[in-house]
Write a structure and sequence with these properties.
With 562 residues, this protein is α+β, with helices and mostly antiparallel strands. The chain folds into five domains: 67 residues, no CATH class; 89 residues, Roll (Pdz3 Domain), CATH 2.30.42.10; 202 residues, 2-enoyl-CoA Hydratase, Chain A, domain 1; 101 residues, no CATH class; 33 residues. Helices cover 40% and strands 19% of the residues. The strands form five sheets. Strands 3, 4, 5, 6, 7 and 8 form a six-stranded antiparallel beta sheet that branches. A six-stranded mixed beta sheet has the order 10-11-12-15-16-21, with helices on both faces. Strands 1, 13, 14, 17 and 18 form a five-stranded antiparallel beta sheet that branches. The termini are far apart. 30% of the residues are buried.
Length: 562
């Protein structure tokens, strides 16, 4: 029997043998012996699998699975980046890539433009949200994965790509030739004056130039004589640590410590201080956060809370206080490895102490009091660690109804927005458009032949109880009561479409506004009926309440009914 050994396996074998051999010329410490021993076990196991396993194996897949399994035993942020994912990784840190400048999503067998970015090739060529991509450079996209279509659209700047698209309301397909550009996604998709000389800045990421963009926005707002600022960090996943320092620097003077890092390699420990004069050290500042505010967002919110420079409003933040460093590996791969924890001015680390017990979205779950430590802010207010930043004023976002979630997830909100725009045509000042009862009835007509079925959590819980009662043989004793309760809890779609009408219209208007005014329009409309945003406005209009928070947060929260 002839055994085939791939070149890659040979290279791995030689590398492992050389590594193990190198240990033989030095005196082993206990740790070095364990490394050599287990590398040898791993290599021999890998060799035997490839030689004798009954089916053909892919050495690359086996190694990646082994790497992923090893890293999974550490923290969620230490990851292996294969060569095929380096472009996506670079985009996450720089905000740049070569392409047409549009989000895409799956639509049946094809992919569809979800949102073109203003001033980039997709926008300039007239591509619209809702356009179905039929082919790219003559190659059909039918059945292709969204990642494959994305790769076909990306490419070297100044190269052209020809798209064949199908647009709602048009019988024939449309051909468009686009010239790819370097696409740079803004960290600040919108800023403006929102109410009574209150400035608003939405900061979505912390890629390169986040601090510069925030400074430009703040200076522009000050030229318009704003008297206070809302910095919205909700849903911001973080990014570059130095950019969080640059953003905080806008509100505190140079020389102020914002964050410090401490890890195993002591020469990598660092203290990050502001390096420039502040733009404004006195303007009242509210920072909005939620469970999606993570990492660099938490540094900004937490440091300005510790320095008694901002009032934090919203939900407890995600709880990521770990620093990752990328280390180059062979064959153009990299290791993103956690090398330190970071600490904000009060001395607290915002990393959740437990990686396993988290909410479904990955944010901080329940932390027992025994694991929480008390710290103090610059003015002596009490703040706590244990994971995430606890707001000075806690305001939970409203949970949408199940029918609203179903309409959104099944893209029925998106699809109707495409129809609405095609039939409505141009609309002046879409942010002030009133979605009438007649408009809503047209949406209900659109839904008549659509699958919008869903199951409420209460109904799911009841079904679980019924199944348990049947197993324990109690069901027959309460069958009538169970069935009566099922009838009461069974949802009525038509009734729910009226009960949750306001929040459904809110989502419809956000999607419709994005078709006319892109990201800016979506954000402006999203602030309507936003209870966290309204609370921020209220605090900034009440100077006495704003100042009292820096003296006694607990007392203020109680009097505010939170």
């Amino acid at each position: 029997m002839k055994i085939k050994i791939t070149r890659k396996v040979k290279v791995i074998a030689i590398s492992v043998v050389l590594l193990i051999s190198s240990f033989s010329f030095v005196a082993f410490t206990d740790k070095e012996f364990k490394i050599a021993k287990n590398l040898d076990i791993f290599f021999t196991l890998f060799r035997e699998l490839n030689l004798f396993y009954v089916d053909e194996t892919d050495p690359e897949e086996l190694i990646e699975a082994g790497i992923d399994g090893m890293l999974k035993s550490l923290d969620p942020y230490t990851t292996f980046i294969p060569e095929s994912e380096m472009e996506n990784f670079n985009f996450m840190t720089t905000g740049q890539y070569g392409g047409i400048g549009a989000l895409i999503r799956k639509a049946g067998d094809y992919s569809m433009i979800s949102e073109p970015y203003r001033d980039f090739p997709a926008f300039k060529s007239g591509l619209m949200a809702g356009d179905t991509i039929v082919s790219i450079d003559g190659v059909s996209t039918k059945g292709k994965k969204i990642s494959d279509v994305s790769e076909m659209l990306k490419g070297t700047p100044n190269t052209s790509v020809k798209l064949e698209i199908k647009r709602y309301g048009e019988e024939a397909t449309i051909e468009k030739t686009l010239v790819r550009e370097i696409i740079t996604i803004k960290n600040i998709p919108y800023y403006g004056i929102v109410d009574d000389n209150i400035g608003y800045i939405r900061l979505s990421n912390f890629t390169n130039n986040a601090g510069k963009e925030a400074k430009e926005a703040l200076n522009e707002l000050k030229k318009q004589n704003v008297k206070s600022i809302i910095l919205d960090l909700r849903g911001n996943p973080g990014g570059l640590l130095i950019e969080s320092v640059n953003v905080a620097n806008l509100f505190v003077n140079q020389g102020q410590e914002i964050v410090s890092t401490h890890g195993k390699v002591k020469q990598w420990d660092n203290v990050y201080k502001t390096t420039q004069p502040a733009v404004d050290t006195a303007i009242p500042l509210v920072i909005l956060v939620n469970r999606g505010s993570a990492s660099a967002s938490e540094i900004v919110a937490g440091s300005l809370q510790d320095l008694d420079r901002a009032v934090i409003v919203g939900e407890k933040t995600f709880g990521k206080g770990l620093v990752q460093t990328t280390r180059p590996l062979s064959y153009n791969t990299q290791l993103k490895v956690t090398t330190a924890k970071y600490y904000i001015p009060s001395g607290r680390c915002i990393q959740a102490v437990d990686y396993t017990h988290r909410n479904e979205d990955g944010s901080v779950g329940y932390i027992p009091d025994s694991l929480i430590n008390e710290f103090t802010t610059k003015n002596g207010r009490k703040v706590y660690d244990g994971g995430g930043i606890t707001p000075d004023l806690k305001v939970d976002s409203e949970t949408p109804g199940n029918i609203t979630i179903s309409l959104f997830v099944k893209n029925l909100i998106f699809d109707y927005a495409t129809i609405f725009v095609a039939e409505k045509g141009p609309v002046d000042n879409i942010e002030e458009y009133e979605f009438t009862d007649n408009d809503y009835q047209k949406f209900l007509n659109f839904l008549e032949d659509k699958d919008i079925d869903y199951t409420t959590q209460s109904y799911k819980t009841l079904e679980e109880l019924i199944n348990t009662a049947k197993k324990e043989k109690y069901y027959t004793y309460a069958e009538e009561e169970f069935e009566a309760l099922k009838q009461k809890l069974a949802h009525d779609k038509n009734k729910d479409l009226q009960t949750f009408k306001d929040e459904i219209i809110q989502l419809l208007m956000e999607e419709i506004a994005s078709r006319y005014d892109y990201q800016e329009g979506r954000i402006k409309v999203s602030l309507n009926n936003d209870i966290q945003f309204e609370k921020a406005i209220g605090i900034l209009k009440n100077k006495e309440q704003y100042l009292s928070i820096f003296k006694d947060t607990a007392k203020n929260a109680a009097t505010a009914g939170l």
